[in-house]
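Researcher: We're teaching a course module on how sequence relates to structure. For the next exercise, students receive a sequence and then see the predicted structure as tokens, so they can try to spot secondary structure elements on their own. Here is the exercise chain.
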Amino acid sequence: MAFMVKQVVGGQLKNLTGGLEAEKPEGEKTEAAAQGMTQEEFEQYQQQLEEEKQEREAGFAQKKAERATVRSHFRDKYRLPKNELDETQIQQAGDDVQLPTELAKMIAEDNQEEESKQSVLGQLTNIQNVDLDHLKDKAQATLEDLKQSAEKCSLM
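Model: And here is the predicted structure for the students to work with:
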């Protein structure tokens, strides 16, 4: 009922006074008062929210840079074309981004396996029915025979 009276009479009173007064509705409060805080507490709260947001964004940027580092590593490993977006993400993070430790361990193990496979003995292990000990003994015996025949050689 009070609302109806205010609507009917309020508009006429504004016209009568000429609308000189800046009337603030009763229901409107400042944001701080609406949340039950003083203005100073509200400002501190807003500042704290902003700091937390910046920390989240920094952590997110760090994670994005780590993912970009992983992608660039695999691009290098498999000789794929580089992506400029990954490089810019790494640079934005401050170039202090490294591969995650678990991934670095896996990569080191893979590199060791690849190196061993690339050696002659590594290739021989891939061939089935090969006795490596027998081959090593035979190679050493051949080298000893060559040394002995080189010592017997009259030209040397």
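Model: If you want an answer key for the exercise: The mean pLDDT is 77. The CA atoms of residues 68 and 86 lie 5 Å apart.
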